[in-house]
Specification:
Helices cover 0% and strands 51% of the residues. The protein contains no helices and 11 strands. The strands form 2 sheets. Strands 2, 4, 5, 6, 9, 10 and 11 form a 7-stranded mixed beta sheet that branches. A 4-stranded antiparallel beta sheet has the order 1-3-8-7, with no helix packed on it. A hairpin with a 5-residue loop joins strand 4 and strand 5. The radius of gyration is 13 Å and the shape is globular.
Amino acid sequence: QVQLVESGGGLVQPGGSLRLSCAASGFTFSSAWMYWVRQAPGKGLEWVSGIHPGGENAYYIPSVKGQFTISRDNAKNTLYLQMNNLTPEDTALYYCSRGLESWGQGTQVTVSS
């Protein structure tokens, strides 16, 4: 079955960086659109970024463009999200998703001084 396991979250000060990882199994990773989605406290799900199966094209919501970078390693079946210059507004539970149909358990990112 599809398994998505996120890691790399944590507590970071404003202006800091984190790199999230998502280890995928149970499907052909190299053929799947992959996404990062987040849920801030008390808010709904927010699509953050998506990447083409081959990694050639990536998409972002305007608020994170230039701040976050999505990437993937199809040889390792792993999705990444490099997050720089983090602000408290980036505090959320971050989920990895295959095609916005399958989801991991999430990894918590907290930005606070």
